[in-house]
């Protein structure tokens, strides 16, 4: 698998339910970021979690990071139809190349009204 | 504070023509990054620039592609003699420091006929 690979590829839920997306990566990182992309649009930054952090919250978003398992999860609580989008995790390569973000193919989240 | 701006948003070129994509970073950001997104794929890093300097172009194809970030004006990604395989969405991002969150523009969707 490639660096920054999301799972599942697609997720369909009902409004009000929680959505959990996972990301796995291969090499050591400095930071891991989650982005959202609406169809045909640019990326919106959601949250950044550093390698020395285990959990971070922002509104209805909760991100966890397990560096021992090289994995992260994004939880969206009380989902809304407007949350429908593709979600990407982006990892850096650590060391001196922390600016070089690697993205997976994303998880397509559909929230049905 | 305006976000990252890219223009044009859509660009159509015939094979063999040149494509010029422009990116104006957020105010106060001196680091610019270009990424390419092929259909159904995640973003791939192309190049990292600071004013008047190319810091890392390891993701750039060796031929036909070039990037610059002059002292004055926007960053330019230039693709010479475009081919159909260059059709993609090209995203620019900026950050105040290379260790910080990258903020993405809306992208330029290049279609090569």
Architecture overview:
The complex is a heterodimer of chains A (113) and B (113). Chain A has 113 residues and is mainly beta. Chain A has strands at 5-7, 10-14, 19-24, 31-37, 43-50, 55-58, 61-66, 71-76, 85-91, 102-103, 107-112. Chain A is globular, with a radius of gyration of 13 Å. The termini of chain A are far apart. The mean pLDDT of chain A is 90. Chain B is mainly β. Chain B is globular. Chain B starts with a strand and ends with a strand.
Tally of helical runs of chain B: 0
Average pLDDT score of chain A: 90
Summarize the main sheet of chain B: 7 strands, mixed
Structural class of chain A: mainly beta
What quaternary form is this?
A: heterodimer
CA-based gyration radius of chain B? 13 Å
The share of residues in helices of chain B is: under 10%
Query: How many helices of chain A?
Result: 0
User: Could you name the ranges of chain A where pLDDT drops below 50 across 5 or more consecutive residues?
Assistant: none
The computed structural class of chain B is mainly beta
Shape of chain A: globular
How much strand content do the residues of chain B show?
Answer: over 45%
**Biggest chain pair contact, residues each?**
A-B, 24 and 26 residues
Q: Helices and strands of chain A, in N-to-C order?
A: EEEEEEEEEEE
Entry summary:
Chain A is an all-beta fold and 113 residues long.
List keywords for this structure.
heterodimer, A: 113 residues, mainly beta, six-stranded mixed beta sheet, five-stranded antiparallel beta sheet, B: 113 residues
